[in-house]
Amino acid sequence: MPQIFHSSTNTLARASIVLAAIAPLGLMMALSAMSRTYFVRLNVPVQQPVPFSHEHHSNELGIACQYCHVSVEKAGNAGLPPTHTCMSCHSQIWTNSPLLEPVRESYRSQTPLKWNKVWDLPDFVYFNHSIHVNKGIPCQHCHGNINQMQITYKSVHHSMAWCLDCHRAPEKYIRPREEVYSFDYNLHAAIERYADEHAKATGKKLEQIPRNQVEFGQLLVQDANINKKQLSDCWICHR
Amino acid sequence: MATQITKTNGHGGVPGDGSDGQPERFLEGNHTYQTLGDKIGAIVLTQKPPRVWFIVAALAFLLVNVLLATITYLLFKGVGLWGINVPSGWGMDIINFVWWIGIGHAGTLISAILLLLRQQWRNSINRFAEAMTIFAVVCAGLYPLLHTGRPWLAYWMFPYPNWLALWPQFRSPLIWDVFAVSTYMTVSLLFWFIGMIPDFATLRDRARSRFAQIAYGAVAMGWNGSAKNWHRYETAYLILAGLSTPLVLSVHSIVSFDFAVAVIPGFHATIFPPYFVAGAVFAGFAMVLTLGLPIRHLYNLKDLITARHLDWMAKVMLTTGLIVFYGYLTELFYGWYSANVYEVALVQNRLFGPYKWVYYALLFCNGFVPQILWLQKARYNIAILFTVSMFINVGMWLERYVIIPVSLSRDYLPSSWGYYTPTVFDWSMFIGTMGLFTLLMALFMKFLPAINIFEMKDLLHRMTHSHKNGHGHANGTDGHVTGEPLQSGFLPEGTPSADRNGG
């Protein structure tokens, strides 16, 4: 009786052991890499009815974030501007621009523009803009350099691990309240100002000038009355 | 097989067989190495399955479709389809999980513990008991998986680096369960597979069709019956036996922690781990008999699975049954002795509450019926053995019913008391898993060597040797290892091994 298997099968069998060890690992790494970029559509501009540019409005013209996102300091939702807000300028300038036709049409017909969401949190997550802004978490931390975006895209992936990174150690990212809207934050200037104000208010110098973000952040967390202990409780976000 | 361990030479090393010099009657008929291989190999290779096999397989296939339909509907609708709801958040899903896991215990017990205890009588039943274990664990695993409600996220239960920045809750026995059951499944599967390799080689060499040769050849993994092969095989098998032995005890202990760690009256008892493990062995042996008796009859295996085997399995059942019954009595005592109003209420609830018929049926099935096994006549009577094991199968299911809904539906707050009723989907799921189990067993009987060929040859070898040499015979261990390849696998019987010194 001839051999059922050719002798090269032995090599194949041995190779399959190595492959069996490597293949799942490689597959998992590929999946994990894809799910961090491709699946969440990171850095992919989202099509909008009007090609609104944050770069132009925020960076070049210097319009404050709150001018359009009026409820960002007061409510959970930062708020998208009604067409009326757009028209407060665009009834005067660029009145004939074809790009702005959908805005004018919306104004005429009294139907809101349908913007497409860029950051869409799952419904089981409770998120409130006002508490973050008022305690000193800057726009920039969650939205990246949105002031440089021609068309808005997701620049930061809001995974749970990412949320918890800050919730477990908010001192890493917190800023003085007046710096939350800034996109050119200078840490050392902020520390100096903080030290000056402290001296003015209490008549005493700071015991130790903070040397970096974390040391400064610890003071700010204390000042903002942030209860770090409960920040990573499940119910904080899953209510 | 681990010759070094099962080696009992002529001194009657099997406890209980007496030292009358008579060989163990665990193999009957006038078998030679050749006829053993022929007989067991033929079931797979040449013999057409008995007509009953087709009927059973078809019926089981039908039930598997019921299972698939139920699961599909369940995935669409959610677990509300089952009868579980506040206050009884656990119902037939968990009952069946524990029931199946319990059945999955006999395989490893027979394979590993009896191997380490040098019980030769395990040889003809261990293979299908192991298969039964694996199929039972497959059925068991379906329940907690679907009970989560979102089975596609089941991988969350494993600790892996993730975006949620969360670990599983290691303080929860439900997570211990994940590890216990998946470890048990892995080790059992490896143990089963490695144990079959020499037999796969036998089948490969006996197969006539090209397809069978390739299929069995692939799973035989190049086995050539050399002393080196046998040496490595023995080592691997012993290591796995050593690994699975603590698993037999740990898996059901951990399953019992699902209950014992909770503070629900009737759950929170220290007796649970030993009582659950004994119950599992009890249920497992009952299922081995439930399956073994028809298989033995249909495939005419009375010479390999002897009356003596059945007798011993019945004895194990009787023993573990008594431990389980002691557990029931302890629970009653515990309720009274705790002087805790809730525990006392639970005992009263069991004895006189709305589920009292379940409790009495349990006592009848598990406490009363098995006592007939004290009689030797009953242990040798196929019909009685089958009936008793069926009663035990039912009884063990009722036991979990008594523990789960009876405790959960009446806990500390009388205002939230309720009554648990399974829905039609609970039953279709349960019957479906029985179909899955039966179908897998049927396929196993058709395509895999249901009885360990080479271990039976080894048994025969030892029997004939103890005949010739009586008490004075004492084989050297190494001599026996190298002698092993003569009896199975690649080499024809009686050919000296080419690789005699390889081990």
Write the layout of secondary structure elements.
The complex is a heterodimer of chains A (239) and B (503).
Chain A: H1 8-36, H2 54-60, H3 65-68, H4 83-90, H5 101-109, H6 129-135, H7 139-143, H8 160-168, H9 187-202, H10 213-223, H11 228-231, H12 234-237
Helix pairs in contact in A: 4-5
Chain B: H1 3-6, H2 33-45, H3 51-77, H4 92-103, H5 106-116, H6 126-147, H7 173-206, H8 210-220, H9 227-260, H10 272-298, H11 307-338, H12 341-352, H13 356-368, H14 376-379, H15 382-408, H16 424-447, H17 453-469, H18 477-483
List the keywords.
A: 239 residues, mainly alpha, 12 helices, B: 503 residues, Formate dehydrogenase/DMSO reductase fold, NrfD-like (chain B), cell membrane (chain B)
Q: What is the ordering of alpha helices and beta strands of chain A?
A: HHHHHHHHHHHH
Q: What is the helix content of chain A?
A: 40-55%
What is the correct CATH architecture of chain B? Up-down Bundle
- Write down the Rg of chain A: 26 Å
Domain unit count of chain B: 1
Strand content of chain B: under 5%
Biggest sheet layout of chain A: none
Q: What is the overall number of helices of chain A?
A: 12
CATH fold description of chain B = Formate dehydrogenase/DMSO reductase fold
Residue-averaged pLDDT of chain B? 84
Helix content of chain B: 55-70%
Main β-sheet of chain B, in a few words? none
Q: Give the helix/strand class of chain B.
A: mainly alpha
Number of strands of chain B: 0
Describe this structure in words.
The complex is a heterodimer of chains A (239) and B (503). With 239 residues, chain A is mainly α. Chain A has helices at residues 8-36, 54-60, 65-68, 83-90, 101-109, 129-135, 139-143, 160-168, 187-202, 213-223, 228-231, 234-237. The longest helix of chain A has 29 residues, at 8-36. In chain A, 47% of the residues lie in helices and 0% in strands. In chain A, helix 4 (83-90) crosses helix 5. Chain A has a domain at 54-80 and 115-237. Chain B has 503 residues and is an all-alpha fold. Helix content of chain B is 66%, strand content 0%. Chain B has 18 helices and no strands. The longest helix of chain B has 34 residues, at 173-206. Chain B is globular and about 70 Å long. In chain B, helix 4 packs across helix 10 (272-298), helix 5 (106-116) packs across helix 9 (227-260) and helix 7 packs across helix 8. Mean pLDDT of chain B is 84; it is low at 1-23 and 468-503. Chain B has a single domain, classed as Formate dehydrogenase/DMSO reductase domain (Formate dehydrogenase/DMSO reductase fold, Up-down Bundle), CATH 1.20.1630. Classes of the chains: A mainly alpha (239), B mainly alpha (503). Chains A and B meet through helix 1 and helix 8 of A and helix 8 of B. Chain B: It comes from uncultured Armatimonadetes bacterium. Chain B: InterPro entries: NrfD-like.
